[in-house]
Amino acid sequence: MALTLISKAFAEDQPIPAKYARTGENLFPPLAWSEAPDKTRSFALVVEDPDAPHGTFRHCGIANIPAEWTALGESADTAPEHAPRFYRNDFGQARYDGPQPPPGDPPHRYIFRLAALDVPTLSIPDAAGIGVMWAEAKKHTLEEATVTGTYQTR
């Protein structure tokens, strides 16, 4: 079987509830995965909006998710010490920042990409952004799974 990724907060290609938006409570939506490859030693996650006006916009990047984990709960940025590491998003913050498409835009897609990695950690400088983290993660990716939600600012 292949790596799968789901969210209890929204179904594939369905709207993401407002509480997970940057203009709402800005909570990280719960995610769960299964069927990771046997050689998985950690996971990395990126949240991207490919419909942003100036190209793909990255809302969240997390690396060093332990291989034994099968989920990230709501508000994952409150995880305990020695937990996964957040990287600077395109808002300039090392955290999750939810959907915030421009008013009047049609619904944007938000793609949550989970990569199963063959290394236990990624060694990336603190100042690095999501792009640097994801490029390094791609070098070690065994398999990737996605779940996509939509959001429109009303």
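That was protein one. Protein two is written in the same sequence-then-structure order:
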Amino acid sequence: MNKFTLSLKMSLSLLFCLIFMAFSMDITLDEQLAYIQKKLLEHHDSEHCEAEVKRYELNVTNTGFCRYKRFYTNGKVEYFSFNLVKFKDLDYYGTDKNGALYLRTKGENVIVQTYNDKRGGDIDSMATYMVIPLKNIEPQDLSDLSERLIKMNAQLLALK
């Protein structure tokens, strides 16, 4: 009987430890990606970016890529993309009403492509940052976005 109660106590202790560990686990990669995508879309400033932009696509994929595409009324398309493993830092220039978010990478890791540009043709190049126009964003949101990008960067690096 003594061995049974000892085993029962050990089993219950282990169960409680597992339950506490489950609730204390870090946020998963998919939750990080969804949060970043939601914040960027929620605060994207399509009114102040450029008058000729008719629509845009902004998404963060589950493979860790941040992609931003702008479609202009004259047919020109600009495409920016980088792997969040290469994320270094972010800067925000502007006010809480509107501004520009600079997502900086470690070196020239942002793919920049331009299609159907009547002045320059199709251009492929690399850059060290991606700029996303934002509006109505609080400093706390920027801080939280930065923290989550850094955590996600570490999670993506751990997967490689």
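The chain has three helices and eight strands. Keep this in mind for the problem set.
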